C-alpha cells in the first residue's frame, strides 16, 4: 500500500550532477549534429552570431524560469506558476501544448533510431528499434527518477565528449594551419569566402529558425524542480552554466567546423562532424557519429517520457486532466501518466509503415513553433510574477528586469512573426495557431464547464 505522503509527493531523487547533465542534454539535440550542415549552407559563418544571439535570449528565459521556480519550491513545475498568474485556461493550453511538443519530437526521434540502427544492421525492420528502445526507456523510467537522471547523464556525456573533441581538434587544426583535404585550416576561413554574411540579411534571418530548433528542450530543467533534492542550490548552478555550454557547444563547434573547411565546401548530405573527423583521417568517423546521433535520439525520447509524464501530472494536479493521472507509485513516479505517454508513443511503431518522412518534418516544425509559444507564455508569467512581487526572489533575481524580460519577449515574438511570413514554415505556423485555438475552444467547452458544475 502507498502511504499518503507517497501518493502525493514526487520523488526528490535528482542530484546536482543529474540536473547539470539534464540541462546540458536539453541544450544539445540532433539538430546540431545532423542539421548544422544545412544551416551553414543557408547562412554561412553568420550562423555563429545567430547561435550567440539565440543563446543569450535562451539564457535570459531560463533565468526568468529559475526565479519563478525558486520563488516557491513547493510547486511541481513551471505549469503551476502559469496557473497561478494566468489562470486555469492558460495552464490547460500551455500544458497540453508542451505535452504535444515533446510527443511529436519523440515520434520523429524514435523513427530516426530505426534509420540509425540500419547503418549497422540494414536488414532489421525499421519498426523494431523504436519498439525496443521505447520499452527499455519506459522500464527505466518506471523504476525511479534517479535512474532517469543517471541515464540522461550518460547520454549527455556522450554528446558532450563528441562536441569537445570537435572543438579541440578544429581549433588545433586552425591554430597550426594544417592542410585538410586540400584546404588550409585557419580562422580566416570565417571571412575569406564572401565575408561573414555571404548570404546577406535574408540568409542571416533564415538561420534563426534552425538555431531556435537546436535549443528546444532547454526549458526541461524547469520540470525537475519537484524532483530535485536541493533546488535552491542545483537549479541556479545548472542555469548559470548555460553561457559556458552555449559558447562551447554551439559557437565553439561552428567556429571549429568552418575554420577547418570553407563554409561553402561543407556538405549538406552528412554531418559536418563526420566531414571534419574523416578529413583528418579518423577511421570509422561515420560510424562513430552514427552512434552519437543514435544516443541523442534516445536521449530525446528519454526526456520526452520524463517531461510528458510530469506535464500530465501537473495538469492533473491543476484539474486540467483526469485526477487518475496524479496517482504515484511507491517510488514517487507518476506511473499512470508515464503509461499514457508511452502508449501514445507506441502509435509511431505502427505508423512507421505508412507515414512518409515529410510528415515528420512538418510535425517537428509545428513542435518547434509550439516550444517558442510556451517560452513566450513563461516570459509573460514571469513579468506577472514580478508585478505582484516587485522585489523578486532573494537568491536568484532575473538580471536587468524589467528590460530583459520585455526584450526577450519581443525577440521570441519576432521569431514567431518571421516563421509566419516565411513560406517554408508558414504552414507549420498556421497549424500551430489552429491547434492552440482548438485547445482554447476545448477548454471552454469541456474543462471550464466541468469545473462550473
TrEMBL record:
Coiled-coil segments: none
Topological relation to the membrane, as annotated: Multi-pass membrane protein
Entries under InterPro entries matching the protein: AA-permease/SLC12A_dom
Keywords on record: Amino-acid transport, Cell membrane, Membrane, Transmembrane, Transmembrane helix, Transport
Gene Ontology CC terms: plasma membrane
Main location: membrane
Any one GO biological process: amino acid transport
Signal peptide: none
UniProt protein name: Amino acid permease-associated protein
Organism of origin: Lentilactobacillus kefiri DSM 20587 = JCM 5818
